[in-house]
Design brief:
Keywords: Membrane, Transmembrane, Transmembrane helix
Transmembrane segments: 12-35, 60-79, 91-111, 123-148, 169-189, 204-222, 234-255, 261-280
Radius of gyration: 21 Å
Distance between the termini: 10 Å
Helix content: over 70%
Strand content: under 5%
Number of strands: 2
């Protein structure tokens, strides 16, 4: 990607949206598992304030995050020239997020000064969720600043092993989103209720974890093996689709006690396409190019 393009407003906004969404999802999954949000949200007073863990809106939350990321990007837009020139840009972004967005937010939100004053939530709960939001915004701030400092791609400034790992992890995350979208589509078609209680269980999430690991390894393979550059994208797509289909079908058959052949065949299509766009060379006017993060 050319530097002028990499520094453009659309690219900046897209990167902020992606970074926010990915860090939000990862932080949310880890925090909800480690801090047992399900039990905490059922406690007196807290249960009246927070949406129950099993509500449908909880499942939809991650899919709204790109819109939040866009708003954050627009807020940071006037400051990006200043932030890219200072080595402490990540800290300034984090202070904006934590100071105005969390602690001193005008709304009476958990973890904020106004929330402590004007809500009946117990004091410990205000500090309970700070770990997740502070860490998520910190990681978000670091990555946004790195892209401001190195607009053509932070992969190039990282040691090779970290660069490959980061790019592969990001690609696997995008493929994971593809699985989620297809799964929601199947749920709507089959009129299956979407609840966090059912879908966030380890047994169900394992259906996505298996292909996630497979896709992570696939991207590493395609990024490191030179001979894969000569493989036509269609064959690359078929290989990735086949590996994902097998992993989904096997997991369904032996863990979920029954394979859904239609789902196993259809669900990997979008993830495989995403991985091809990320990992496989693209032939544009005879020049092999890759999509870089």
């Amino acid at each position: 990607m050319r530097e002028t393009t990499a520094k453009s407003i659309p690219v900046f906004l897209i990167r902020v949206m992606i970074i926010h969404t990915l860090t939000y999802i990862v932080a949310g999954i880890l925090a909800s598992s480690l801090l047992d949000y399900r039990s905490v949200f059922e406690l007196p007073i807290i249960g009246d304030y927070m949406v129950p863990y099993g509500e449908e809106s909880v499942v939809w939350g991650p899919y709204i995050q790109p819109a939040r990321g866009l708003i954050i990007g627009l807020v940071l837009l006037p400051f990006r020239r200043f932030l890219e020139k200072t080595g402490y840009g990540w800290f300034y972004i984090w202070m904006i997020m934590a100071g105005i967005g969390i602690v001193a937010t005008p709304s009476a939100a958990p973890g904020s000064i106004e929330g402590i004053i004007y809500t009946k939530l117990p004091l410990w709960f205000h500090f309970f969720g700070l770990t997740e939001v502070l860490l998520q915004t910190l990681v978000f701030s670091i990555f946004v600043h790195m892209y401001l400092r190195y607009p053509t791609g932070i992969i190039k400034v990282l040691p090779p092993i970290f660069g490959i790992g980061l790019e592969s992890f990001a690609g696997a995350c995008f493929a994971f989103i593809g699985y989620a979208l297809i799964s929601i589509l199947f749920a709507f078609i089959n009129q299956v209720p979407i609840t966090a209680e059912a879908n966030m269980s380890l047994k169900v999430q394992g259906l996505f974890i298996a292909p996630f690991i497979a896709n992570f390894l696939i991207i590493i393979f395609f990024k490191n093996m030179r001979f894969t550059r000569e493989v036509h994208p269609i064959f690359t797509f078929l290989i990735i689709w086949l590996v994902n289909t097998i992993s989904v079908a096997v997991y369904q058959q032996f863990i979920l006690e029954g394979a859904d052949l239609l789902y196993a065949l259809a669900a990997p299509i979008l993830p495989a396409l995403i991985i091809v766009l990320i990992a496989a060379p693209r032939r544009i006017r005879g020049i092999n190019r890759n999509i870089h993060f």
